Amino acid sequence: MTDRKANLRRQAEETVRGKEAQSPKNLEAISPEETQQILHELRVHQIELEIQNEELLQAQKELEASRARYFDLYDVAPVGYVTLSEKGLILETNLTAATLLGIRRVDLVGRPLSRFIVKEEQDSYYPGIRQLFQTGETQVNELRMVKKDGTTFWAHLEATTALDDAGAPVVCRVAVIDITARKRAEEESRELLLLLESVPNSIVVHNSDGNFLYANQRAFDMHGYNREEFMALNLHRIVMPTSKKQIPSRIQEIVDRGEISFEIEHLKKNGTILPLWINVKKTIWNLKSVLLSVQTDITERKQVEGSIKESEHFLRRIINGSPVPVFIIGRDHRVIYWNKALEEMSKISSKNMVGTHDHWMAFYGDERPCMADLLVDEATELVSLWYSNKYVKSPLIGDSYEGTDFFPAMGEGGKWLRFMATTIRDSKGMIIAAIETLEDITERKRAEDALTEALTRLKFLDDAKRDYLHAISHELRTPMSGVLGIAELALEELGDEQRSEYMAIFESSRNRLLMAVDSALLLAELQGEGVSLPTVPVDLVEIVTSSSCSLQESFLAKDLSIVVPQTQPVLVLGNEELLRQSTTTLLKTALKMSTVGTSIAAQFGEDHDRAILQLGFQGQPLPDKLQCTFFDTFSYDRSSSCVEELGLAIPLAAHVIRSMGGNVDLRETATGIEILMTLLKGGDQKET
């Protein structure tokens, strides 16, 4: 400062000497009065200069204050500012913009701004800059920018121009605002909406009048409507008439209790009935009380989880209010949602679970992946490793698996859970999360175990029954031979004809008793095991023909005839030996019940996959009760009829035929009595 003052004084003295040299007056000839006047003028001028100097100093202070304010408003403003040339080069920038881009301000000058814009976004950046310089209109854009270290962020760019004296654009001023947080919130809302549309439940929101406010795609698909058709309906329009009268009382019950569950039938668009299990809960949506309904199609499955939202707040309320235990994890395996139903089941609060990787703790004693973890990693090949034979791939939804397992760490004594997991994808098909629903089936498993134990005891009793019948068979056969021998000795004194007659009676009685024992044994095998006999194609026509030939003497003794049509083979599936025995028994039954001197007519036919044998004959009218119980194992009506001596052979024949997939029936027709036997066809049939 001292050097500067000395320099200024030297310049002033030189200027004064120059002016004195040019002055026409001789300073020595100036009068005192003139000197005084000049001195006065100099003092006044000096004071004027001092005043001007103070004003300059004040102006300098104000300028420095203005520069400080400019620094606050421009350099450290919360918004980044960048000044660009017409070629897009950075001419000036504030500290905020430099901080956003992660680079020193001095290093930004001279670089193109496009260097810091993600390559995929540059196609939307360049046209805007060109249009700005051409029209001068403000340009607004949202795109991804990249920092010096390679990380990206979303930015809102608003560009204006500065004009020269002629009104032409000179430079471009760009405001850069970081909108990453806003974009993230928008993405989360979109993901939640995708989650809602991908859940396997039908989710419907309606008011107390039954007007629908929201429904997901699953609801439309289940009812057979598109979105517009369904949303134009009312709850009363899709509920079966038998259930409509219950709607007001159920809505009032929901209002009073807050939540109820019940079974109901809906009417689909095509007129068919859709049975549903519905969980309904009262909740708040847009400051209004509404009813949230989670519906499960119980014709295919007992439980399907789902929830719905229209906004981020509403979506969270829906999922949290779902009565089905459910949790959702993100790509990083952190818990996103842990609803109240799962809080009740696991006894772990959502507050302690959301944001952690600890969801396994609710189900297992040691850390291991849940089904949702495997799906979010697309590691489906590991499902069989962790769940062995306890899972199946869902037939309803792609990328979904369901399973059943016992979880000893849950509750007292453990729980049996049925669980289902599926992935949630974004619009590009990328997995963004996984959802897993759970159902406590402990009571059902206990019932199944009790049933298994009961079946085991029943099998033990069946085995004991067969062993007992075998023992009875042995005990009867041995003494029966002795009885016949003693009878023969006792009848030796009688004549040959009379002895033969008595021996025939003894022999017939023995054979009938032994046949009853054999029939009882075979019946026990068929009934106890519930077996289906191995079958092969056999010719039913040949069996009927040969069986009728074997009974010719019996037919002649009763003056009966049997008519078997000569036709092409009729192939049926059956065990040839047992089918032949059963057919012979049916022919004997017709023989016993036929009126003397009449005939028995056999007819063959078919119905879809069945071959039919009809044995028609004349006989005494049948009581209605006998028609219903004729082929029962124990039939009092049959035992008191003309077929009494056939004994258990009749129900045995019926059991054999049914074990081969067929059926047999006895009925009275307008023309007489008919025995009708059906069997599965065993091959291509020709016209008869």
Write the layout of secondary structure elements.
Elements (H helix, E strand, L loop, with lengths): L1 H21 L9 H44 L4 E5 L5 E4 L1 H7 L3 H4 L13 H14 L3 E8 L5 E12 L5 E10 L1 H19 L3 E5 L5 E4 L1 H7 L3 H5 L3 H4 L2 H4 L2 H11 L1 E9 L5 E13 L2 E10 L14 H10 L4 E5 L4 E4 L1 H7 L3 H4 L17 H6 L6 H5 L3 E3 L6 E8 L7 E11 L5 E10 L1 H49 L5 H34 L6 E4 H11 L1 H6 L3 E3 L7 E4 L1 H18 L5 E9 L2 E8 L6 H6 L6 H4 L9 H11 L3 E7 L2 E9 L8
Parallel strand pairs: 18-20
Antiparallel strand pairs: 1-2, 1-5, 3-4, 4-5, 6-7, 6-10, 8-9, 9-10, 11-12, 11-16, 13-14, 14-15, 15-16, 17-19, 20-21, 21-23, 22-23
Helix pairs in contact: 17-18, 18-24, 19-21, 21-24
Please characterize this protein's 3D structure.
This protein is an alpha+beta fold. The chain folds into six domains: 71 residues; 102 residues, PAS domain (Beta-Lactamase), CATH 3.30.450; 137 residues, Beta-Lactamase; 116 residues, 2-Layer Sandwich (Beta-Lactamase); 83 residues; 149 residues, Heat Shock Protein 90 (2-Layer Sandwich), CATH 3.30.565. The chain is built from 24 helices and 23 strands. The strands form five sheets. Strands 12-11-16-15-14-13 form a six-stranded antiparallel sheet. It has a five-stranded antiparallel sheet with strand order 2-1-5-4-3, sandwiched between helices. α18 runs parallel beside α24. The longest helix has 49 residues. It is rod-shaped, with a radius of gyration of 51 Å. The N and C termini lie far apart (133 Å).
